[in-house]
Write a structure and sequence with these properties.
Blueprint (H helix, E strand, L loop, with lengths): L7 H15 L2 E3 L11 E3 L1 H20 L4 E4 L4 E2 L1 H7 L1 H4 L1 E6 L6 E3 L22 E4 L3 E3 L9 E4 L4 H6 L1 H8 L5 E10 L14 E11 L4 H18 L7 E5 L11 E9 L2 E12 L1 H10 L5 E3 L4 E3 L2 E8 H12 E6 L2 E6 L10 E5 L4 H14 L5 E3 L5 H10 L4 E5 L1 H6 L1 E6 L5 E5 L3 H9 L1
Parallel strand pairs: 3-10, 20-21, 20-22
Antiparallel strand pairs: 1-2, 4-9, 5-6, 5-7, 8-9, 10-11, 11-17, 12-13, 13-14, 14-17, 15-16, 18-19, 22-23, 23-24
Helix pairs in contact: 2-9, 3-8
The protein binds adenosine-5'-triphosphate (ATP).
The site of adenosine-5'-triphosphate has 16 residues, from strand 11, strand 14, strand 17 and helix 9.
Amino acid sequence: MGKSDQSANNLFDKIVNLSKRRGFVFQSAEIYGGFRSTYDYGPLGVLLLRNVKEAWWQAMVQQRHDVVGLDAAILSPPQVWEASGHLANFADPLVDCTHCNARHRQDRLVDPNKCPTCGTTGSFTEAREFNLMFKTHAGPMVDSSAEVYLRPETAQGIFTNFVNVLQTSRKKPPFGIAQIGKSFRNEITPGNFVFRTREFEQMEMEFFVPPKDADYWFDYWCEQRLAWYLSLGINADEIRLRPHQSDELSHYSSKTSDLEFRFPWGWDELEGIANRGDFDLSVHAEHSGERLTYFDQANNARYFPYVIEPAAGATRAAMAFLMAAYHEEVVDGNTRTLLRLDPRLAPYKLAVLPLSNKGSLIKIAHEVFDLVKFRWMADYDQTQSIGKRYARQDEIGTPYCVTIDFDTITDGAVTVRERDTRQQQRVAIAEIQGFLAQRLD
Ligand code: ATP
């Protein structure tokens, strides 16, 4: 059965099931009945998520001399959100169904007059603007003077640190500041597993450019970001760039394109790339009274840089990578499930598998594990039949299985099995690091 034979809903259920069964994603607080719309990442999920974030950091920070990193606070005072416009504008239109009491986000309804929960037409209340920010209190006093917010995006921490970074990094436009971290939104309708949750991780980069070059850099980042997903295993027919219509644009944006993935329920956003103009720096300058401009010595001109922002979701991307990697194929009459994850994203790069529980094999297996453990995340598994162990590693996307068998004792070699082709070859233990480095790094 090829991937095209799987119905979309089927794929969604299979990913949710695999995530739970193999330890990628668990419902949060499950032992208490589950806390809706929050999820915990299990032993494999935490590795996948780290790898997604690491691949982003590599491409956006490490491999560029014009981007630096930042890790700003999650808790922030109201002034930041007053200035950014979030207190006034970061809201979704909420409607209630007077028939079944379900709540919906009006702009996401297929038919704005029909309740998708009970099917009643004309039962909605007038839309109310519902602000998505989580509010809490800092310190022992629970009054309005102690109100603080959990950030709904990482971007504002970058704008409020613009001058700090400019002065300490010796960068000048065009340059970027990148950040990965948690954001919080009190979503009206969370759902589709980890696609839309109230707590999630973002990977955002604000690229500051001379205003006249903004169009060039907008196109540049659209291309770069699309290429990033393609390079990590998303097929060209599963991803597209969709420019926003003028009525879709956020209050700060003059131009936005979404990178959309073909999820089982249809095309939906993975990442937004926006030209935010000088909106953010100028409103923060106005509200803080600080000078947030850049002085261009060569042209003796002071200006607010324009900002091009590629804003991605780490948790959403991890789910898309899982869906794109999921394959089933029939081998000798049995269905084999495998995740064809790019090795950079795979939770484990290899699994070390002694064929039997014999002490002599276990000893060598531990030695092999010790040889690779400093460089690659490796699994170690000595129970069950080798066939079952291979099947498990295929299902969690491990590119290589390294088996220590009875011949290893005499010939000092192991069997290396490749996930996608199932091909096996004998490799000397002394050469295993070089063999894997050639294929994994
Ligand atoms: P949407 O229209 O889906 O609510 P958005 O356009 O408001 O999303 P952005 O503010 O552009 O989203 O956020 C950038 C990225 O952060 C999104 O492309 C997505 O990958 C991720 N993201 C946003 N909200 C959520 C959420 N509630 N759960 C998971 N990821 C999210």
